[in-house]
Specification:
The chain is of the alpha/beta class. The longest helix is centred in the middle third of the chain and has 18 residues. The protein has 11 helices and 8 strands. It has a single domain, classed as Metal-dependent hydrolases (TIM Barrel, Alpha-Beta Barrel). Strands 1-2-3-4-5-6-7-8 form an 8-stranded parallel sheet. 40% of the residues lie in helices and 16% in strands.
Length: 279
Amino acid sequence: MAEAMVKTIGGEGLDDAHNHLQDPLLAGRWPEVREALAAVPVRRAAVNGTCEADWPAVERLAADCPWVHPSFGLHPWKVKERSGGWLRRLRALLERHPGVGVGEIGLDRWIEGHDLEEQAAVFRSQLELASELERPATLHCLRAWGRMREEVDKGPRPRPGLLLHAYGGPAEMVESFVAAGAYFSFNAAFLEPRKERTREAFTAVPLDRLLIETDAPAMPPPEALDRWGWRDPASGRRVNHPASLGLALESLARIRKMDTKELARVLRDNFSSLFGAGG
């Protein structure tokens, strides 16, 4: 089945620069998810681990699906849950899988009870590891853009580059992040009316640094644009279907005033530049 999926979503498809296909909210609907991704079609997907507990699930998913590009990291929301040997385990995992990324890592002032200094120490150690092993790093940032820029400027920075996933920082910071080797991924959740400034920031991103993402099952698009309507049966909260990637492409093309097919070609090249050409 994996080989058939590769053929279906190969060639001229779209690349999801950031999601969490290992999440239990999607695992129970996996056959349906795979069918929907093939219909988009999604060519490659960067699937991010967030903590020691879900790294094995990402590893298994990548083994079963050659079109999955895995990344492993300790998310700032999970910093307080880390074990004493977390960094050693992360290094061993990365060394076992040459070419995989480091992520999702970063800084977050939004989460309740955050300790930014503790987050920053964990972030720096992972950025140093990505730099040493020359792996792309995927960064999360909420309400900490000034500190994020300071940390990135201090370095070291991984040679393949950095992904500022679901970039929500100001347009004024784009140039300095570009100089640090950053890419910026657009998410369809930014179509919410209150996200006008975020959409404007993506007009400042150089064309060769643009990517699209879903962050599925998080960050669903506005409800009026969500053709899937999935909800978490336990909480009732909306769940982002990973096939919403097509909406991200169409929306970014409008923002950039580009032909959709031409933008898709550019995005494929950018994905390969950051994550590698793949199979």
